[in-house]
Amino acid sequence: MHRAAPKADIDESALSVTTPKTQAAGVKAVTVALERAVEEMGVLRTARTLARVNHRNGFDCPGCAWPEPTGMRRPAEFCENGAKAVAEEATLRTVTPEFFATHSVEELAGKSGYWLGQQGRLTHPMVLRAGDTHYSPIAWDDAYRIIADQLRELDSPDEALFYTSGRTANETAFLYQLLVRSYGTNNLPDCSNMCHESSGAALTASIGIGKGSVSIDDFKKADLIIVAGQNPGTNHPRMLSALSEAKAHGAKVIAVNPLPETGLIGFRDPQTIKGFTSGTTIADDFLQIRLGGDMALFQGLGKLLFEAEDRAPGTVMDRAFVDAHTAGFAEYEKQMRAVDLAVVEEATGLTRPDLDRTAALLASSKAVIICWAMGLTQQVHGVATIEEATNLLLVRGMIGKPGAGVCPVRGHSNVQGDRTMGIWEKMPDTFLDALDKRFGISSPREHGWDTVDSIRAMRDGRAKVFFGMGGNFVSATPDTDVTEAALRACELTVHVSTKLNRSHVVHGRTALILPTLGRTDDDLQDGVRQQVSVEDSMSMVHLSTGRLQPVSDQLRSEVTIVCELAQELFGPAHPVPWADFRRDYDRIRDAIADVVPGCTDYNAKVRGRNGFQLPHPPRDAREFRTSTGKANFAVNDLHWLPVPAGRLILQTLRSHDQYNTTIYGLDDRYRGIHNARRVVLVNPEDIAELGFAEDDLVDLISEWTDEKSPDAAPQERRVTGFRLVSYATPRGNAAAYYPETNPLVPLDHVARRSNTPVSKAVTIRLERHVHTA
Known about the structure:
Layout: E1 16-17, E2 24-25, H1 26-41, H2 43-50, H3 80-90, E3 94-95, H4 97-102, H5 105-109, H6 113-117, E4 121-122, E5 126-128, E6 136-137, H7 140-153, E7 160-164, H8 170-183, H9 197-207, E8 224-228, H10 232-235, H11 239-248, E9 252-256, E10 266-268, H12 273-277, E11 280-281, E12 285-287, H13 294-311, H14 319-325, E13 326-327, H15 329-337, H16 341-348, H17 352-364, E14 368-372, H18 374-377, H19 382-395, E15 405-408, H20 415-420, H21 429-439, H22 451-459, E16 465-469, H23 473-476, H24 480-488, E17 492-497, E18 510-515, E19 524-525, E20 528-529, E21 532-535, E22 540-544, H25 558-570, H26 578-583, H27 585-595, H28 602-605, E23 612-613, H29 617-621, E24 631-632, E25 648-653, E26 658-659, E27 662-663, E28 667-668, E29 673-674, E30 679-682, H30 684-689, E31 697-704, E32 715-726, E33 733-737, E34 762-768
Parallel strand pairs: 2-10, 3-4, 7-16, 8-9, 8-14, 9-12, 13-24, 14-15, 16-17, 17-18, 25-33, 30-32
Antiparallel strand pairs: 1-29, 5-6, 5-18, 10-11, 19-20, 21-22, 22-23, 25-34, 26-27, 28-29, 30-33, 31-32, 31-34
Helix pairs in contact: 1-2, 1-3, 2-3, 7-25, 8-25, 9-19, 13-16, 13-17, 13-19, 22-24
């Protein structure tokens, strides 16, 4: 018996609030995971599928990018939210042409993203022609012809945008960017632009490579792990196992976050005896920091490290490492010694004992890892904040050392692999030169548009075709009203998708939906099973093999879609062997080996027991490929976020029942929020001071002044009908779920140097909601 897709949409009045949990995972997580899986897939399909998640010769979880262990893997090598992700993809519910004939686009546009996603897997290619009210079926060849004809009619290839989701495998990503560059543009925006672009910008400047420097095995060798701006219990639950194991080896964990997140308080590992009994306390210390205060924290800790070195010369700073491998230390020291700790306390909301305690542990630890996610990256000063965290590791020699390093925890399962394969609007000439030499094409050298600039281009009429390889662009991006209007202005929108989502009902003059295989599906090309490869958050590359019978014989693999579109667009004389690549993915990996740095002998290495780890010069040899040839200390002016009178600073976040824009259900169990999503979490003292009461219905209005026009009136955006929930947030801070609050994030409110939307620092005011007829 499979759960029927919802007939009615979300009833926000059904909200109930309970006490937040203090233990993540445990028996409840197992129960929820199995219930959701069985409801979507049935008993036998659930058993066959979950047994293969993240196992060798199995498939990579379509959820997060947390790495698999290198040794023995446990029978259930997945988490609750991983099981939900698999169930969503492997569901037996289907969205057929009959569904589209029954429901007009106007009707579907009035449904929530949750309702749309719950309808099931797409089964046939569909088209919405100009003037149509309903999508209708279309043959694959005719769909390719529409796309190719529209691309040929553009005045410039730069009028087309080619978006990529992190779910895309390496083989698809490589061919996709090859198609786009063969066509003549570098317009390759991707989901990384909206999440970890700040990490890449900061780390490239500091250590010469925009990836983390640790492996999963380093967690067992660390004695201090700082987890900042991250909620692993919901977003990367398998990370809790690594943290638990690290603690078993003697590590201390410090959580730095505005909200007390359950996963960093306690963890019940359902696969161990201790997990069933007492569980593990994860965080030894919790620094409840104000939104936007992380940069101040890292600078304050830097000052305290220098003071500790003064008290005990030669015991804190790793001068041998600093002198041999870094540049800019003197300037950094000068700035840190000038830091005002009173300002740090004000900016962070922390006390001097909090700072002293953290600095002492940082100074005495022999192997330190700093982990972070979007809490740091989606700030105006996100790049500088990550540079300051990296500075702390550099002064202590914690790069290129076992158990130590930088650990940006990526979100989607292959978002890092996409970038490695060339999905970036600013790929270096060395990559493009290798691509051109291998295939006999001429890649454009002018940089393309990232996600924010792509929206601006559509808005301004400079881009007319949008092609989305996976993802849910409308719901993932900021400034929803502006983004939707921009897409509606396009001549053609195309989405390669597994399931129905909001982006399919926000369409250009002509729109196509192309249904594709998922990670769990058996990918047969000319009767031969194919495998794809992915890269996790720690640069490990391994194979993924689906086995499930696809729900429709009309589904095509992403590789097939790219290759067949390329053949239609370029014709038979094109130098790239698209037909050969479609038939045999090993041929694609041979090409990757010739082009992508670190991928020599790709086919052989990826078939190793754990796959293989891509080179990382700072980690492997303390080699820093920066402008100075050394790791660079950054010097940044302090930036933080004072709370204006009568206002709050809002962060957008996920519920425990969602992954990115996919809503699995309506229970944020760990935070105690049930049956609703339009809620705003506010400190009870702020609720009272602002003249409201818990459970009041309010509108949220964001206020933003462009720093380029400081004298202009603030821009305002509004979302309506949110319930006030009393919660242990820092004073002056608030939290609410995305994508419901994405309309509040101005398109031009972006991080300096990375252009990442600032979704974790939105100034808002509350107004009492007025019911309208």
